[in-house]
């Protein structure tokens, strides 16, 4: 009888573990190439197609994020540069892991921030970025995921792995646009070919 009671207790204890759902692992970005060719020249601001004024206005009016001073953003970026979980020795395709880690770091400081998610659904994307650790040029084909915060006059992107300092949203999209056609996901058209699309999530 004691054996049956122990067996029943063991089964009841085991069932929640058996049916527990594991935490989803962040998706991995696909690397198309790593080369030493210089990146194309980029302008200081994105084109109207890459960052339409209407999309920018909606972002500025949303009020979803904590507004930080540019000095605060620079201080956060400098701290994260020396954090091995925010800037990896091997960049790989772990941008979503880094973005999630940085967003949790900001949340602990009571800072509401977001994710700038760039996706290339046709897998013809050429998201070319310079790794700040190795100096190598990475090209991604499916997506890139980075942190974005609000400042008084707009938004700044914290791509600690692939930039040496915070970038304005317009400037960040401009460096992507130098080698890849891009537009907001909200403006996606069935006639588009070989575009990448950006969106901002909380």
Account of the protein in words:
With 202 residues, the chain is α+β, with helices and mostly antiparallel strands. The protein has one domain. It is 31% helix and 22% strand. It contains 5 helices and 9 strands; from the N terminus they run αβαααββββββαββ. The strands form 2 sheets. It has a 6-stranded mixed beta sheet, sandwiched between helices. A 3-stranded antiparallel beta sheet has the order 1-4-3, with no helix packed on it. A hairpin with a 6-residue loop joins strand 3 (127-130) and strand 4. It is globular and about 40 Å long. The chain starts with a helix and ends with a strand. Residues 1-22 have low confidence and may be disordered.
Kindly summarize this structure in a few lines:
By secondary structure, the chain is α+β, with helices and mostly antiparallel strands. 31% of the residues lie in helices and 22% in strands.
Mean pLDDT rating: 84
How many domains comprise the coordinates?
1
The quaternary organization reads as single chain
**Secondary structural class:** alpha+beta
Strand order of the largest sheet: 7-6-5-2-9-8
What proportion of the residues is helical, as a percent range? 25-40%
Total beta-strand segments: 9
| Terminal Cα span | 55 Å
**N-to-C series of helices and strands:** HEHHHEEEEEEHEE
Query: What kind of sheet is the major sheet?
Result: 6 strands, mixed
């Amino acid at each position: 009888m004691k054996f049956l009671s122990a067996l029943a207790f063991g089964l009841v204890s085991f069932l929640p573990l058996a049916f527990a759902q594991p935490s989803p692992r962040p998706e991995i970005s696909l690397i198309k190439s790593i080369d030493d060719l210089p990146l194309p020249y980029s302008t200081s601001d994105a084109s109207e197609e890459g960052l339409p004024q209407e999309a920018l206005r909606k972002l500025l009016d949303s009020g979803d994020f904590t507004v930080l001073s540019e000095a605060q953003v620079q201080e956060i970026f400098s701290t994260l540069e020396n954090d091995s979980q925010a800037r990896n020795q091997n960049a790989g395709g772990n941008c979503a892991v880094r973005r999630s880690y940085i967003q949790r770091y900001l949340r602990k400081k009571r800072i509401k921030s977001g994710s700038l998610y760039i996706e290339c659904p046709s897998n013809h994307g050429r998201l070319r970025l310079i790794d700040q650790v190795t100096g190598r040029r990475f090209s991604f084909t499916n997506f890139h995921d980075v942190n974005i915060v609000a400042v008084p006059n707009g938004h700044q992107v914290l791509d600690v792995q692939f930039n040496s300092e915070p970038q304005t949203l317009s400037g960040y999209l401009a460096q992507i646009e130098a080698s890849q056609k891009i537009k907001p996901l909200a403006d996606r058209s069935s006639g588009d070919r070989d575009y990448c699309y950006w969106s901002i999530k909380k």
